[in-house]
């Protein structure tokens, strides 16, 4: 991006210069340094996006050593999460039909979605470029190691995206496998003795929604057990690269239920607290577990921020109320931030992660994903219950505006993960 020439160049004159000239130059230089980033955004045609600040790791630990798995460093001043979507005629990094490990609701084309424009958008940071995803480098890095995604079905989607991105270079079907066993799903690249895994834990803490199949609980009845992260955490030990995510299951109202005893206790001691307080408890528990069980010299931990749901079309300027159904173009307002992404929760993440002794890398996908109302599964998924006549008459009533089609947006999340893993 070219920066317009300094105005001082336009007022050069031969001979002596007035003292006022040097004062003016000094003022211009001061303003340029102070507000240079904003000038770049303005001259580059991009709006400044106001969003909660989220810290992330640099390329080194606090003691100056490089983070595990890093092979280089990001360009100076590069924020890969601040950028815009640009059209890419080349299309996605893989085809839906070429990845046998995809399941609904990610398999949108299999379930009738005909348009493919949503697959052609590439994320372009303002001040740099993303490194190309290198499946060979990823698998070689994972040789004799484990990568695990922990969270809910949105993190399952990111897991499936990662599997699709790497499995395409494994020529033999016998050299790769996927095993589903309760809360744990394991993809194995046998020639590499490498696994990419997913573990179902929608709250990270023990909850009454922990059954990976039968977990539908009315929003107001959802509850987590205090100080219970080891219930799941015992299954995470020995992982080399961890990707946590939890958000959407917490957003049931302004209050959330916390249980002191086990879920089998007859006399249950349940307290209702503000949602952000309950979420903070989960973040503190996760950070404690990481500091106790992960070696920062050998492992990496990532946290994927909240994923937007696009449930109210009036928020992006539609004349009538609707949702992601039948949306095939992006939101073009760079300042858009939907009510589905709670800034108070975003701030909890930032506040708690700043205190962490372990260098956790945030994958701040919220703003970039907020523009992508076109990329949801919508009605193009398997429906476990027969649709009613009323639903069939109003497709928006059963549109899935939480999950995302693959290939699609979540591949970009993993491109960002790739960038931060190898070039932090």
UniProtKB/TrEMBL annotation:
- Protein localization: Membrane
* UniProt key word Transmembrane helix: yes
- The Trichome birefringence-like N-terminal domain is annotated at 77-129
Q: Keywords, A to Z?
A: Membrane, Signal-anchor, Transmembrane, Transmembrane helix
Annotated Trichome birefringence-like C-terminal domain ranges read: 130-419
**Which Pfam families does its entry note?**
PC-Esterase, PMR5N
Protein origin, superkingdom: Eukaryota
Recorded hits in InterPro entries, A to Z, give: TBL, TBL_C, TBL_N
**Any stretches that span the bilayer, and where are they?**
20-43
GO cellular-component terms in the record? membrane
What does the record say about its membrane topology? Answer: Single-pass membrane protein
| The family this protein is said to belong to | Belongs to the PC-esterase family. TBL subfamily.
- PANTHER family the record matches: PROTEIN TRICHOME BIREFRINGENCE-LIKE 33, PROTEIN TRICHOME BIREFRINGENCE-LIKE 9-RELATED
Under which name does UniProt file this protein? Protein trichome birefringence-like 33
**Species name:** Salvia divinorum (Maria pastora)
Q: From which lineage does this chain's organism come?
A: Eukaryota, Viridiplantae, Streptophyta, Embryophyta, Tracheophyta
GN (gene name): TBL33
């Amino acid at each position: 991006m070219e920066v317009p020439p300094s105005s001082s160049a336009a007022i050069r004159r031969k001979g002596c210069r007035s003292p006022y000239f040097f004062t003016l130059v000094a003022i211009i230089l001061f303003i340029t340094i102070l507000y240079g980033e904003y000038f770049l955004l303005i001259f580059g045609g991009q709006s400044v996006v106001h969003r909660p600040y989220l810290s992330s790791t640099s390329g080194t630990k606090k003691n100056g050593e490089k983070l595990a798995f890093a092979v280089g460093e990001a360009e100076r001043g590069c924020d890969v999460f601040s950028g815009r979507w640009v059209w890419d005629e080349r299309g996605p990094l893989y085809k839906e039909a070429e990845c046998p490990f995809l399941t609904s609701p990610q398999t949108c084309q299999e379930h009738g979605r005909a348009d493919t424009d949503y697959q052609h958008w590439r994320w372009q940071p303002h001040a740099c470029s993303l490194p190309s995803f290198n499946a060979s480098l990823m698998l070689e890095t994972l040789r004799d190691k484990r990568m695990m995604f922990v969270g809910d079905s949105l993190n399952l989607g990111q897991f499936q995206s990662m599997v699709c991105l790497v499995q395409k270079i494994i020529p033999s079907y016998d050299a790769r496998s996927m095993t589903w066993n309760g809360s744990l799903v394991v993809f194995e690249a046998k020639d590499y003795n490498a696994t990419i895994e997913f573990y179902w834990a929608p709250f990270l803490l023990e909850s009454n929604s922990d059954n990976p199949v039968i977990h539908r609980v009315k929003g107001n009845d959802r509850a987590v057990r205090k100080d219970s992260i080891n219930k799941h955490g015992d299954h995470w030990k020995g992982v080399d690269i961890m990707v946590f995510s939890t958000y959407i299951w917490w957003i049931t109202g302004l209050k959330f239920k916390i249980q002191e005893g086990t879920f089998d206790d007859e006399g249950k001691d349940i307290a209702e607290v503000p949602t952000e307080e309950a979420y903070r408890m989960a973040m503190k528990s996760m950070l404690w577990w990481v500091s106790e069980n992960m070696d920062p010299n050998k492992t990496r931990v990532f946290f994927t921020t909240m994923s937007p749901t696009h449930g109210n079309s009036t928020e992006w300027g539609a004349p009538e109320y609707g949702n992601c159904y039948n949306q095939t173009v992006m939101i073009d307002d760079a300042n858009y931030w939907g009510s589905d992404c709670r800034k108070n929760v975003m701030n909890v993440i930032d506040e708690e992660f700043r205190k962490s002794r372990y260098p956790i890398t945030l994958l701040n996908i919220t703003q970039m994903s907020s523009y992508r109302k076109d990329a949801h599964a919508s009605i193009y998924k398997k429906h476990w219950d027969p649709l009613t006549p009323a639903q069939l008459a109003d497709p928006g009533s059963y549109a899935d505006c939480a999950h995302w089609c693959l290939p699609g947006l979540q591949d970009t999340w993993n491109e960002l993960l790739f960038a931060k893993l190898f070039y932090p």
